[in-house]
Specification:
0% helix; 11 strands; seven-stranded mixed sheet; four-stranded antiparallel sheet; mainly beta
Amino acid sequence: QVRLVESGGGLVQRGGSLRLSCAASVNRAAMGWFGQAPGKEREFVAAQGWSGGSTLIADSVKGRFSISRDIGRSAAYLQMNSLKPEDTAVYYCAAGPVVTMSPTYTYWGQGTQVTVSS
C-alpha cells in the first residue's frame, strides 16, 4: 500500500517561511504539491519528475516557492518563502507517473495545514 505523509505545516506570519516535507513509499514517481483553501478547489503549486528534472511551478508562487527531491528517500520538499495570507491552505503531496499541473496524480497524502497571519 502506497503512503504519502506530509509534515512541516503550521502558523507563520506574513513574510515568513515554511518547509513542507513529503515522505513517500513509492519509488521513481513524479511528485507534486497542491493547495486547497477553504471553499476553493485544489490548486497546483509545484511538481517535479522522479529524477529531479521537469520542474513545474505555479505562476502565483514563482520566485517564492521551490520544490526539491531526495531521490534516495523518495521524499519531496516544498520550500515556502515570503508567505502571504492568501497562501493559507491545506497543502497536499501527490505522486504519480507523470509530472503535471493537473490534480490527476495516483496517490495523495492527508494534507498539512499552512496558515499565514497578517
